[in-house]
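Suppose you are handed a protein chain with no further information: no name, no annotation, nothing but its sequence. What can you learn? This example shows the usual starting point.
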Amino acid sequence: MLTIRDLKKSHGGNVLFENAALQVNYGERVALVGPNGAGKSTIFSIILGRDQPDFGTVERDAWTMVGYLPQEAEAVGDETVLDIATGRAGDLAALDRTLRELETAGDVDGPQYLEAHAKHEALSDPKVEARAKKMLAGLGYKEADFDRPARNMSGGWVMRAHLSRLLVMEPDLLMLDEPTNHLDLVSLLWLQNYLKTYSGAVLLISHDRQFMDELIENVFEISERRLLEWKGNYSAYIEQREAAYERQAAAYKNQQKEIASLREFYDRFRQVASKASQAMSKLKQIERMDLIEKPTPPKKPFRFMIPQPVRSGAKAVSLEDIHMAYGPVQVYRGLSLDVERGERTVLVGPNGSGKSTLLKILAGELEFQKGTRKLGLNVKIGYFSQHRAATLDPDKNVLQEVMDAAPTLVENEARGILGSFLFRKDDIYKKTGVLSGGEKTRLNLIKFLVDPPNLLLMDEPTTHLDIHTVESLILALEHYEGTLVFISHDVHFIRKIATKVIHVNNGTVTAYPGGYDYFLEKTGGFENERAALTN
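A reasonable first move is to predict its three-dimensional structure. Written in structure tokens, the prediction is:
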């Protein structure tokens, strides 16, 4: 279906990869992994023909339909959500033009015509609207939102509409760049289950470890300018990579010992007449060796000692008889909830169930119509919202933000922590106003970790973080002695951190005093929510 041979690509004088080879077969699930800046999205661009390699070839079967989901997309006109999902928002018209141009040119046998024709057929199917509504519902849209103008919705919701359109078309090769970034947990699990039985192939870039473990059967890693293939899912790749490193490190060490021994013999006896020829043979033996390259250790998550906050009272925060509504829409009626000191609670439930609203009420960021909110003794709140930019001063640089957050922190320590969260060299002098979404997320996390409150409320803290940064965050929070309430769609993160689950749905909250797997065991997961979304 897709074959890459001998690919080389440089950017700004820096070689991203060379001699790269990759193959995706029909129905296969493949992940492309590597650190930020390694060239993952560049490979996607080359496959799509939007960028050209310095050397090498990309071969696609002529009849292969490719669908691509970028990380970000915005609505540009008056199209509705359903217009995007059905292709009425320009896709069908653009495909019409492409087909007419190719027919006029007589090019009706090439891959461009065949792909455009297949996409046009898929979006012209009489059942396309029904299929689009099913996909939109699965990804968390309510029926009332189908006819809303997409420009009035966030970029994350627009991305869901574009993803729905791809699933409606059912391309032979589905290329997804960080598809889980803007999904809540229920819609992520719906997508995961849908892709498990998807008839086409999937080529995926993702930071979601559990998502890859559930789907992927082949991993290609960009490492040291090479593209390495590993069989199995993400966890299998990690195990194989560690074992391969240990083998190569041992082989390198043994060869270096042998070289040192041979060179010692040569240096000792090269001027001894009776041993000179034997000494020269030792030198030639070294020259004939296939030298083993010293392996680079696999990147490890960064560990640092998080300062421990002041101990709070037994109850960190309590809610009693809370009534909360947005205009005529009632979210909570008579909600009561106690958050105990030391709990690590994850809020789960379908989109629109009130998870973020509950977190804002706990944080004191949202006024409610009735009820009481009471903070415990010595409680200091830190609220990590989805709107990261609002907490940063656009005129300060990265280093200043961290130093101001923890006045007792020395600069070298701040630089070390920033480096571990991928702020390196001149990055620390960037103004926060020019940072990307992922950089703002990382910087806000650092600010919380260097001076943590004793009640930490976090809304989707892993969004835009790569896998190594997520692991660093997990290690930091595992040693955090305060109270944590969070929302996340990252199942691996939830499993590692949560000791209590609160299920939020239809204005009710149900607590499960155990981890995520305990919640699944007691409830069967989100089957009811998923069924309600797509039926």
